[in-house]
Each structure stands twice: as structure tokens, then as C-alpha cells.
Design brief:
This protein has 218 residues and is an alpha/beta fold. The chain has 9 helices and 8 strands. Strands 7-6-5-4-3-2-1-8 form an 8-stranded parallel beta sheet. The radius of gyration is 17 Å and the shape is globular. The two termini are 28 Å apart. It binds pyridoxal-5'-phosphate (PLP). The site of pyridoxal-5'-phosphate (PLP) has 14 residues, from β8 and α9.
């Protein structure tokens, strides 16, 4: 990560590692936490709740990086520091209802489908401004940036193109004043493409396999 940042003249400290611990047992998370990692990401609500509760004494910071169904919101709303996958106004409203009850605010990133792959979640890039405008009115949510999952290919130019597309929208939102001063994160890059993502401007990479080894087949 540091080498990739330096290659493009960026400060390595400006890129945060979210350790994606899905399928990884709590003991292994404990090991990585002991090595200094604080921020962990999960993509399933039940698993996140189980691990956050089991490891509560470590004071870890939990991010939800996967698609969040509205009926799961109540389980995770009080436990996460950031949701990377906000993709609809309906989800934002459900979050607001739950957060209000627990008296908390939540940092959210808008998930964007930058590859056009139909299997991917996220809004189309053109829908970013309108969703931001709507979510900005919701008191318990703070929009802190954009997130994408790169296209499922080893083709470097296709992956970089998706990251550049998101980085372009990120700049447009910032420079257009569409979001507040807290709009500062670009969550992109996973085990196979985090270096490209950092070179294209990522401030958060979500890495699982490269830290924990391969996951069992789903
Ligand atoms: C699993 C997952 C990751 C991490 O993937 P790796 O290829 O194991 O690094 C990142 N982001 C999301 C949304 C994921 O579901």
C-alpha cells in the first residue's frame, strides 16, 4: 500500500486499510488486532454482529462493506462506524429510523456501479448527485464519500478505468460542493487491485484474501 502511494506521490498515511474479515474466525481477527489493525469490514449482517459482540473488549472499529438489506439494518445500525454500501434512499431512511432510536450518527459511502456488470450492487454514476442531495437531508447520516467494487477481471486498463470513473465523480462532488466537508473518502481496491486503486486515488482499500489467505468457497 505504501509503495503504491509513493509511486504517485501520495502520502501513504492518507490511505486506510479496512481488513475484510468475512468467513474469518474471531481468533484470527484477534491476531491481526494484536498486530495493530483496528478497522475491520464484514459483508453480512449476522456475521458482523456475532464478531463485533464476541470481540467487543478489543474496541475494534467495524465497517459494513457489503450490500445491506433493509430488514437487517436494526442489527447493525448501532454497531458500525461506517457503511460503504448505501445505494438507495429507502435504505437511508430505514437507517435514519434506527439510528434515531439509538441516538447515533453514521458515516456512509454511496456505492456506485462503475463496471456496468448487472450482478453488482450500487447506483449508476449519473444517479450520484440526486442520491447525495436526498441523503444530505437525513440528519443521522453523514455522506463521507464513494465506494465501488472493480470489474471482475485481471484486465488492468478496465479496472483502472472503473476507478478513474469513480475518482472523477468524487472530484466533481467535492468541487461542486454537493456534499459537506466530511466528504473525503474513496473506498476502492481489494486484494487483486488495491495497488491500482491507490494509484488512482483511493483513501480506503478493502482487503481480505491478501491478509487472511483464501476463503472457503461460498
Ligand atoms: C470480500 C470483499 C472484499 C475483500 O475481497 P478480497 O478480494 O478478499 O480482498 C472487499 N470488498 C467487499 C465489498 C467484499 O465483499
Amino acid at each position: 500500500m505504501a509503495a503504491a502511494a509513493r509511486r504517485v506521490g501520495r502520502d501513504p498515511a492518507a490511505v486506510q486499510l479496512v481488513a475484510v474479515s468475512k468467513t474469518v474466525p474471531a481468533e484470527r481477527i484477534r491476531e491481526l488486532a494484536a498486530a495493530g489493525q483496528q478497522v475491520f469490514g464484514e459483508n453480512r449482517a449476522q456475521e458482523l454482529v456475532a464478531k463485533a459482540d464476541a470481540l467487543q473488549n478489543l474496541g475494534l472499529v467495524w465497517h459494513m462493506v457489503g450490500h445491506l438489506q433493509r430488514n437487517k439494518v436494526r442489527h447493525v445500525a448501532g454497531r458500525i462506524a461506517m457503511l460503504h454500501s448505501l445505494d438507495s434512499l429507502a435504505l437511508a431512511q430505514e437507517l435514519d429510523r434506527r439510528l434515531e432510536r439509538v441516538g447515533r450518527r453514521l458515516a456512509v459511502l454511496i456505492e456506485v456501479n462503475t463496471s456496468g456488470e448487472p450482478t453488482k450492487f450500487g447506483v449508476q454514476p449519473e444517479a450520484i448527485p440526486s442520491l447525495i442531495q436526498e441523503v444530505a437531508r437525513i440528519p443521522s447520516l453523514e455522506i463521507q464519500g464513494l465506494m465501488t467494487i472493480g470489474p471482475n477481471t485481471r484486465d488492468e486498463s478496465a479496472v483502472r478505468q472503473a476507478f478513474r470513473l469513480l475518482a472523477g465523480w468524487f472530484r466533481r462532488v467535492r468541487e461542486g460542493g454537493m456534499a459537506g466537508a466530511g466528504f473525503q473518502h474513496l473506498s476502492m481496491g481489494m486484494s487483486g487491485d488495491f495497488e491500482w486503486a491507490i494509484e488512482e486515488g483511493a483513501t480506503m482499500v478493502r482487503v481480505g484474501t491478501a491478509l487472511f489467505g483464501p476463503r472457503p468457497p461460498a
